[in-house]
Structures are given as C-alpha cells and as structure tokens.
Amino acid sequence: MSEVRIAAEPRTEFGKGAARRARRAGKVPAVLYGHGIAPRHINLPGHDLMLALKTPNVLLRLEGVDEKESLVLPKSVQRDPIKGFLEHVDLLVVQRGEKVVVEVPLLVKGEVGAGGVLNLEMAQAEVRAEATRIPEGIEVDVDGLPIGTNVTAGDLKLPEGVELAMDPETIVMSVVAEAAPEATEEEEEGEAAE
Q: pLDDT, tens digit, for every residue of 73-87?
C-alpha cells in the first residue's frame, strides 16, 4: 500500500469564487471528515494530488492540517468533465489499524479455455482491509477455465487480513462461448449465386 505525503493548508474562504481562485492558484479544494470530527476545509497542491490519485486507494498523509499528521483516504473525487482536472476531493480520516471498506481492482491472469471469452461482470471487488494494508489489486487466475464457468466473489483469493465486503455469491466474471462470426454480404451473395 502506498502512502503519499502532501502539504495541506486550511481554507478560510468558501463558496464558488473562493474555489475558483484556489484552482487558478494550482490548489484543489478538499473536505476532511470522519471519526466524529467536524468537517474541515483545506486546499491541496493540485499536481501532487493528481499524481497521488493515479494509485487506486492511495493513503494520503496530510501535513500542516493539525499539530500532527492526518492519514486520509480519498472517498469522492470530482473532475472537470471536459478538461479532466481535479475540482474537489472528499477525504476520509483513518487511523492505523482501522478497517475500511474499499473497492480493489481485479487483475486477470491467464487465458480461458479454447473457444471461450472472458466476460468481466465487475472490474473491482469491495473488500474490508486495514487502512494501511489495502491491496493494490486482487489476482484472479482464469487459466484454462472452460466455457460456462462463473467466478464469484467468494472464489476470490484474498490476501491475508483482507475480508470480502460484498455478497460472496455475486458473479464477478464468467467464461462464455465465442460469438460465431457473421457472414458478410459478399459471402451471402456468393452462396446465393451457387
């Protein structure tokens, strides 16, 4: 699990205008909440935050918010729909040893059996793990699985200390038969002429 240090500064101005000014200055407005504390408004450096958020379920260590550092997980990230830059982030305060529920990507390994195609129903699985030990992904070995096989959430091999936080009967992927190629118009005309 990666942990990234980011310098945060308290926000004193609120509203749309203040948020726009912060973004123009290269900052991203954020809200810090959790553990029964009142929500706190902060600004984070935009570039550093963008790089950190490229890692799924990254644990951020905020410096400059309190007298001590805060460990947080990004819960909600809002991006500009056109340009893609960060507009706002909600951060959940966590503590070492605390278990949190997060979505972890499924990493497919291997090739399915002959004539089969892997149908990915879910790209992520919801798990409960210690905040400082969230896996970066869960490997799913599909090597040689025959057509008609379903892989459920309960079939996933989870790392030590990680529990499934979703229904174990949920199908996450299945192996289906390859679709027969459709005949082209030229082939159909050729068959009709014979």
A: 888 888 889 888 888
Residue 188 phi/psi, 5° resolution?
Answer: -65, -40
Confidence of residue 50 (pLDDT cuts 50, 70, 90): confident
Q: Which residues contact 110 (CB under 8 A, 6 or more apart)?
A: 141, 142, 143, 144
Does pTM top 0.90 for this prediction?
no
* Within a domain: 190: no
| 156: containing domain | 100-177
In the chain, the number of structural domains is 2
Burial class (CB in 10 A: 0-12, 13-18, 19+), 113: middle
- Percent of residues, the chain, with pLDDT higher than 90: 4
- Per DSSP bridges, beta strands 37-45 and 59-63 are unpaired
| Boundary residue ending a domain (94, 111, 144) | 94
- Chain centre to alpha carbon of residue 47: 19
- Per DSSP (E only), the strands in 27-170 are 27-34, 37-45, 59-63, 70-79, 86-94, 99-109, 116-120, 124-130, 138-141, 150-152, 163-164
